[in-house]
Amino acid sequence: MNYIEYRFSISPVEPWREILMALLAEVEFESFVDTENGMDAYVKADLEDEKSILEQIQSISEAKIEFERKEIEQENWNAQWESNFQPIMVKDQCYIRAEFHEPKPEIPFEIIIQPKMSFGTGHHETTHLMVEFILETDFTGKDTLDMGCGTSILAILAKMKGAAYTEGIDIDEWSVENSIENAARNQVEMTVKLGDAEILGYRNFDVIMANIQRNILMDDIPKYIKVLNFGGELLLSGLMEHDFEDIKKKCEENGLNFVSKKQRNEWIALKFIKN
Ligand SMILES: C[S@@+](CC[C@H](N)C(=O)[O-])C[C@H]1O[C@@H](n2cnc3c(N)ncnc32)[C@H](O)[C@@H]1O
């Protein structure tokens, strides 16, 4: 399969977030890079999906949207990504880079990611917020789950912070393969599984992280809570500001207490505890 790359330039920038959410429902985003005008989005879609992507964009926005569209052969995808990937620092404590960037040994946590076709480089707000939460969380000796692991960036950081057992689960085969590669790249031991919340139930966790999206989380939160130990924490993202009340209510109905919220632009991440 070939891939379609869309490089968006939107003015004014504001409707961009809604467009992004609509697109997320349609296609799988591969990576995002913030730019001055909005964001470069690298989208994996087959040619049949394309009509609906364009219809979605046009139905949402009255803004001026310009985009370049390029078909990229699968084997060129990595080169395309590499030329756009900039290292990123979170809270002066976690440096996320590719193999070809200079290391920063003075930074406490350094993660090397080659995302290939998977989501999770730290550039997107939701990953950034989850990394911030993880930096503040005690993982020592804890069993952790990264649901919707993508590149497994979150699982790798949890393990670097002392987690005893770390598992990543994703519905996407590319992400499972990529997670295994990234774990090896960072010399981190973790278990990676293909699946969704239906495969939970075989063990419990002390910290569950899930950066997916609102509708999936609304369905799956009760399943996560069932396998969360008492005293355990649930970290959620893939959410926008207006999702806050619904997600909070869902968690509280299922026995969690709200702890805190983080926000970058319209994106939020939430922390809950099971008491
Ligand atoms: C927004 S990405 C997050 C990746 C990474 N954890 C991060 O924080 O950057 C969401 C990931 O969830 C996966 N996913 C989507 N629906 C899922 C589901 N129902 N169960 C598990 N994973 C799912 C996608 O394949 C994707 O890799």
TrEMBL record:
Transmembrane segments: none annotated. S-adenosyl-L-methionine binds at residues 127, 148, 170, 211. GO terms for molecular function: protein methyltransferase activity. InterPro entries: Ribosomal_L11_MeTrfase_PrmA, Ribosomal_PrmA_MeTrfase, SAM-dependent_MTases_sf. Its EC number is 2.1.1.-. It catalyses: L-lysyl-[protein] + 3 S-adenosyl-L-methionine = N(6),N(6),N(6)-trimethyl-L-lysyl-[protein] + 3 S-adenosyl-L-homocysteine + 3 H(+). CDD domains: AdoMet_MTases (cd02440). It is an enzyme of class 2 (transferase). GO terms for biological process: methylation. GO terms for cellular component: cytoplasm; ribosome. Keywords: Cytoplasm, Methyltransferase, Ribonucleoprotein, Ribosomal protein, S-adenosyl-L-methionine, Transferase. It is found in: Cytoplasm. Belongs to the methyltransferase superfamily. PrmA family. Methylates ribosomal protein L11. This is Ribosomal protein L11 methyltransferase. It comes from Moheibacter lacus. The gene is prmA.
